[in-house]
Design brief:
Number of domains: 2
CATH topology of the largest domain: Rossmann fold
GO molecular function, one term: oxidoreductase activity, acting on the CH-OH group of donors, NAD or NADP as acceptor
Largest sheet: 7 strands, parallel
Family: Belongs to the short-chain dehydrogenases/reductases (SDR) family.
CATH superfamily of the largest domain: NAD(P)-binding Rossmann-like Domain
Order of helices and strands: HHEHEEEEHEHEHEEHEHEHEHEHHHEHHE
Strand content: 15-25%
Number of strands: 15
Radius of gyration: 23 Å
InterPro entries: KR_dom, NAD(P)-bd_dom_sf, Sc_DH/Rdtase_CS, SDR_fam
Number of helices: 15
Distance between the termini: 32 Å
Protein name: 3-oxoacyl-[acyl-carrier protein] reductase
C-alpha cells in the first residue's frame, strides 16, 4: 500500500498526470524573502500604505500590464509573443488596495497589476487584496464591483503554486467608524508572515476597534497574560498551548483526567499550569476562575480563553440515538456556552478581563457538513452562530472583548493519521496548497485572533484549510 502512495506523490509520471505535489510552506513570523509590492485599483487609496508604514515595510510600486508596457519575445523557432512587464527578481508579496474600486471598468486595473506580480511571485509568496465590505459600497455598481474581488481572490488562490496564498481583507471606510491603519495592521502582518501558511482563499473582515491606543503587532504579544486552553493534552490543543507560551503567555492547560499524563507533559514543557477537569461539569467555569485566582492572585484575570476540547461520535443520522447525539452537543457546544457565561461575570476573581479574547475551534464540517457526522456538524455550526451573536453583543464591545472562531480543515493530527493510507494521502491534497495542515497552523490563527492588536476583528470565523476545493 505504501508503494501506491509513493508512486502517487513522488513519481515523475504522476506529476505529468497532474497528481498534486506538496510544497514546504514558509511558517513562523518571517516575512517573505522578496520585496513587498504595493498596488492600487480604482484610485490612489491611502489605508494600505499607511498600514505598511506602521509595520515598517517599504513597498515597491507595482508594475502594470498594458499594451504599452508589454515586451515582445521571440522563441527559438522565430515565433513572437507579447509578455507583460517583469520584475527584476522574485517578489515576496503583492498587496492590492482596491478600496477605491467602484465600477466594472476599475476591475481591469486589478488584472493589470496582478498579472505581472503572479508571474514573479516567490514560493510561499502572498497575494493580499484589501477591499470594502460590499454592502457599504453604495451604488449597486459599486457593490457588484467590490463583490467581484471575492471571485478574483479565490480564483487566484486556486491558480497559485509552490505554497503561495491569496486572501481578501474587507474593511469599513464609508461608515461612521471607519477602519484605520492601526486596525488593519495585525491582520495584514498575519497574512504576510508565515503564520498564515495554511490560510488561503479566505475573506477576513476588519472593522474598527474604537481603541486609539491599540498596540502595534509584537513578537511576544501575550507577555505576562493568562491564557486558558481546553483540550490541551495533545494534538491541536498542545500546539495551541505551545504557541501561546512561545509568545509570552502564562498558560493554563485544561484537559480531562484520562489525558492527565499528556497534559502534564505539555504543561511541564511550556512552563504552564495543568488543570484536570471535565468541561461538561456544571462548575467548570468557576473552577477555571478559581484556579486562576489561586495561582496568580485574586486580582488576576484571564486574557484569552481558547475552547479547543471536543469529541466526535460518528454515525449516520439514521442510526444515531439520543445519547450519542446529546454527548457530542454537550461537549462541543453547551459546555462552551456555560463556561463563557461564568467567565464573563465582571466581578468574578480569575474571570475574563476587559479587552479579553474568546476563541473557539469550530470545523469546516460545521460549514459544509459531512456524512456520518450530523451531531458534530451541528455542534460546530452552532459555534459559528454563537461567535457571530457574541461578536455583535454591545455589552462585550463596550468591554473590548472579541469573540472569534477558527475552522480547521484537514490537519495532520494523530486522529487524521488513523484514516486509511490512500484515502488520507489523496484527501489531504484536495485543497489549493495540496497538503494537510499542521497543528501549529491552527494555533497560529488562534493566536492571531487573540492578539491584543487584533481588536478590530470580532464575530468572525477564520478557516485554516488551505482553500478546500470542495464543500462550502
Amino acid at each position: 500500500m505504501a508503494d501506491i502512495v509513493q508512486i502517487l506523490t513522488t513519481n515523475p509520471l504522476a506529476r505529468q498526470l497532474g497528481v498534486p505535489q506538496p510544497t514546504d510552506l514558509r511558517r513562523g513570523r518571517e516575512l517573505p524573502s522578496g520585496p513587498v509590492v504595493l498596488a492600487t485599483a480604482g484610485g490612489p487609496g491611502s489605508l494600505v500604505r499607511q498600514t505598511l508604514d506602521l509595520l515598517g515595510i517599504n513597498p515597491l510600486d507595482a508594475l502594470v500590464d498594458t499594451p504599452a508596457t508589454r515586451v515582445t519575445e521571440t522563441d527559438e523557432e522565430g515565433r513572437t509573443r507579447e509578455v507583460p512587464p517583469s520584475y527584476p527578481s522574485r517578489i515576496g508579496a503583492i498587496v492590492l488596495d482596491a478600496t477605491a474600486v467602484t465600477t466594472v471598468e476599475d476591475l481591469e486595473q486589478v488584472r493589470a497589476v496582478l498579472r505581472p506580480a503572479l508571474r514573479s511571485l516567490e514560493a510561499s509568496g502572498r497575494v493580499v487584496v484589501v477591499g470594502l465590505e460590499p454592502d457599504t459600497a453604495g451604488a449597486p455598481t459599486a457593490v457588484a464591483s467590490q463583490q467581484a474581488l471575492q471571485g478574483i481572490t479565490r480564483t487566484v488562490g486556486k491558480e497559485l503554486r509552490k505554497g503561495a496564498t491569496a486572501n481578501l481583507v474587507l474593511v469599513d471606510l464609508l461608515t461612521a467608524t471607519p477602519t484605520t491603519a492601526a486596525d488593519l495592521a495585525s491582520t495584514l502582518s498575519f497574512l504576510l508572515e508565515g503564520r498564515s501558511a495554511y490560510v488561503s482563499g479566505e475573506i477576513l473582515h476588519v472593522g474598527h476597534s474604537g481603541d486609539a491606543a491599540a498596540p502595534a503587532p509584537a513578537r511576544r504579544p501575550f507577555e505576562g497574560q493568562i491564557v486558558v486552553v481546553t483540550g490541551a493534552g495533545r494534538g491541536i490543543g498542545a500546539a495551541i498551548a505551545e504557541t501561546f507560551a512561545r509568545d509570552g503567555a502564562m498558560v493554563v492547560a485544561v484537559d480531562v483526567a484520562a489525558g492527565g499524563e499528556g497534559l502534564s507533559k505539555v504543561a511541564n514543557r511550556i512552563g504552564g499550569h495543568a488543570l484536570q477537569l471535565d468541561i461538561t461539569a456544571p462548575d467548570t467555569g468557576s473552577r477555571i476562575a478559581g484556579h486562576v485566582a489561586q495561582r496568580f492572585g485574586e486580582a488576576a484575570r484571564i486574557h484569552t480563553v481558547v475552547h479547543n476540547a471536543g469529541i466526535t461520535r460518528d454515525k449516520l443520522l439514521v442510526n444515531t440515538d439520543e445519547e450519542r447525539w446529546a454527548s457530542v452537543l454537550e461537549v462541543n457546544l453547551t459546555a462552551q456556552i456555560r463556561i463563557n457565561a461564568v467567565l464573563l461575570e465582571r466581578s468574578l476573581p480569575g474571570g475574563l478581563d476587559d479587552g479579553g479574547r474568546i476563541v473557539t475551534v469550530s470545523s469546516t464540517t460545521g460549514l459544509a457538513g459531512n456524512a456520518g457526522q450530523a451531531s458534530y456538524a451541528a455542534s460546530k455550526a452552532g459555534l459559528l452562530g454563537l461567535v457571530r451573536a457574541m461578536g455583535a453583543d454591545p455589552r462585550l464591545a463596550e468591554r473590548g472583548i472579541t469573540v472569534n472562531a477558527v475552522a480547521p480543515g484537514v490537519i495532520a493530527t494523530e486522529m487524521w493519521g488513523k484514516v486509511p493510507l490512500v484515502k488520507r494521502e489523496l484527501g489531504q491534497r484536495m485543497n489549493s496548497l495540496q497538503q494537510a495542515g499542521r497543528p501549529v497552523d491552527v494555533a497560529e490563527a488562534i493566536a492571531h485572533l487573540a492578539d491584543p492588536a487584533t481588536a478590530a476583528v470580532t464575530g468572525q470565523v477564520l478557516r485554516v484549510e488551505g482553500q478546500l476545493m470542495i464543500g462550502a
